[in-house]
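Dear U.,

For the methods section draft, I wanted the exact inputs and outputs in one place so we can describe them consistently. I've listed the two proteins in the order they'll appear in the manuscript figures. Please don't edit the token lines directly; just add comments below if something needs changing.

First protein:
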Amino acid sequence: MSSGTNQPLAFGIDVGGTSTRVGLVDGGGAVLSLRRRNTNVFDSPAAFGASIAEDVNLACAAARASTARVSSIGLALPGLIDPRTGTLIRSVNLSWLEGSRLGESVATALGRRVVTLTDADAATWGEYRSRPGPAPDRFMHFRFGTGIALGYVSAKLLTPIEPDRRGHLDLLIADRSKRALFCRCGKRGCLDTIASGPALIEAAKVAGIGGGLAGLQTTWEKGDAAARNIVEKAALASSAVLSRIICELNLSVVNIGGGVLEHLPALASDLRFSTADLAAASGPVLLEPSMRGDNAGVVGAALWAFGKTM
């Protein structure tokens, strides 16, 4: 697909714990070309950076677009980023990227400025900018993926929550009991241990359910009690976390998405059911599904880069 005008283009690069998406995006947020590859086959920032540069060039070729039209590149990274240097300080799912300045490597390889932000903020910005109608005052995107993440927009600005943290957000603690499981971030009871993709797949394996998230979905559809219990547990824990966040941040819109819901719609169904009373209890808050799906991070990173360079 090619863009029929000479308008500037941007790349959105969404680095996830499982896969990385590289998309060519126009100023309106349309994805003109998309490349995807597994992230977990790499263990070196240098090799990974080279693969991203290759995908950028291939995506341009697929869209029949000149690289000269690419005005900016947005790079979304999973974890905590030093805003002054672009260094990835902490990444629970991709520890081999910690301490690297991947943005600098990609910028050098492509000869373009690269703007870095977290993957949660990129997805949030992509969803926020894709909404029709007036912009809400307080918007949150809540994302189920390899990990659980959220981003927050207040007064039309991406707003950090707990900026000095080293692990997952305290707002995402789902279990504060002595039985709470340890999370890879170093804390106990994070929602990641219950409702992330890896946690759901592990719970399914323990229950004798194979096939990953798709297998869990199929078994749930057949009415299997173990599958329904796994999904319901994740939905109830997520609903409790959402309830607390909505009250603390006084949110007006909560947008829910992520790759887990793409492969396990049962969780989205149970989550909507378990949050049915949430909106009424918390005031006038709108709960809405993702509008960009797995491409939210790509679109958000590109649009963020547009805003920083134009």
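Second protein (the one for the lower panel):
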Amino acid sequence: MGAEKTRTTVVMDGEALGRAVTRIAHEIAEKNAGSLDDLIIVGIRARGDVLAKRIQVALNRRIEKQVPFGVLDITLYRDDVGSRAALPRSTDIPFSINGKIVVLIDDVLYTGRSVRAAMDALVDFGRPQGIQLVVLIDRGHRELPIKPDYVGKNIPTQPQANVKVELEETDGRDIVVVEEAA
């Protein structure tokens, strides 16, 4: 059997990714202008937390104040926890989320199952006033009724395609690619 050929398409380079982060931070500031004191940023491990930190920095510059930042590990909340080899890492939310507006950040939104797991995990920490969802890439194909509030880029994909987000902090470069069978 021959190896299957893969076509890789770059959908965001580092410059486009940076612009998306800045735009999302501006949109968050505008939407929450009257409630910035209640805003907190929480990133989903493993790349949502890196994006969340970038968005937090851009948002802090925009509003000239420090928005609290936390990291959420959803490993034990996933509906496929028994079929994955991943071990839980750490969640770091060093503040109360009660009555706060949680801006939840992930890299790619696909079926919605990771976001559902993240919301389940968040409510174990308290009762937020609301949750706003940020994703860098929305690729469609939702299995659950979950819709992001802020999107870096919508990318229509085939269900069997693979969307890879690489970030400087974890992968040595900023790029988003779609890999599909040729």
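Candidate sentences for the figure legend, describing the second protein: Strands lie at 6-12, 39-44, 69-72, 101-109, 130-138, 150-154, 162-166, 175-181. The chain has a mean pLDDT of 93.

Thanks,
Y.
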